[in-house]
Design brief:
transmembrane, membrane, transmembrane helix, HIG1 domain-containing protein, elongated, 4 helices
Length: about 90
């Protein structure tokens, strides 16, 4: 069972490596919606709600991009598999 989970995790990492823009874009949109929903519970003007939601979403998205880069640097065989698929 443990080998099956590691295979699924490797497959997931490979998919993220192949679809970086889709992954980062989906993450940003999801975080933007969630942050805006949270900001709507606070008594601040709409303009500040939008600005705070965007800033928090961008912060986490930059972290996600860094994690993808680190994952590819630490496991170069993911990048090799990507080049073989092309």
């Amino acid at each position: 069972m443990e080998g099956d989970q590691s295979d699924k995790f490797l497959e997931w990492k490979r998919w993220v490596s192949h679809h970086k823009l889709q992954t980062v874009g989906s993450l940003w949109v999801g975080l933007m919606v969630a942050n805006f929903a949270f900001q709507c519970t606070r008594p601040v003007p709409l303009q500040l709600k939008l600005i705070h939601s965007r800033v928090y979403s961008q912060f986490v998205t930059v972290g996600a991009v860094a994690c993808i880069g680190i994952a590819e640097a630490l496991e170069p065989n993911i990048k090799q598999k990507k080049e073989e698929d092309l």
